Structures are given as structure tokens and as C-alpha cells.
Amino acid sequence: MSKTMPISEVKTRLPELVTGVAEQEEEIVVTRNGKPAAVLVNFAEYERLKDSLDVLSDPSLMSQVRESRSFYSKRKTGLSFEAVFGEPVRLRKRRKR
Length: 97
Fold this sequence. Notes:
The protein has helices at residues 7-24, 43-56, 59-73, 81-85; strands spanning 2-6, 27-32, 35-40. The chain has 4 helices and 3 strands; from the N terminus they run βαββααα. The radius of gyration is 19 Å and the shape is elongated.
């Protein structure tokens, strides 16, 4: 869940806020003059966001995504994860919101 805080409060509580962001996956929207100016997120979430942006900004990968969507929208079946990678899917824990 995200919180919104003015930069003046963030300055005084930064160590505590960083601990909360790192341990509890909180998100903090930092405002300046009442307008959003920055966001504090934990490093793992930042890495996931960067990875997603890398995929979304790669025309070749996005072309593959569109082709896959078209393929599966026609109710065709492809190979399973296990058939492609030789191991079963291991589901990750969903992050708290």
C-alpha cells in the first residue's frame, strides 16, 4: 500500500521510512508543494520495474509478445514451460499491496 508524505516529513523520518520500504514493501509518494515529486520503493521492486520497462521498450520483444497474443487468441496451444525449459514452473510469492 502506498503512503503520501511531504518531503519535509520524509527528511525527518528517512531512516525509519527506508526500513519500512525495504522490509514491508511499502511505497511512499513524496510530495513537494503538494505535488508528487518522487517515490520510495524497495530495491527489488525497482529492479522489477526496470526489467519491465526494458521489455516494453524493446521493439523486438514487444513484437514477440504481440505474435504470442495473436497465436493464443486463436485458441492455439503452444509448448508448456516444462517442455521448453525442462523444469516445472516455480511460482513466486505475490507481493503485498
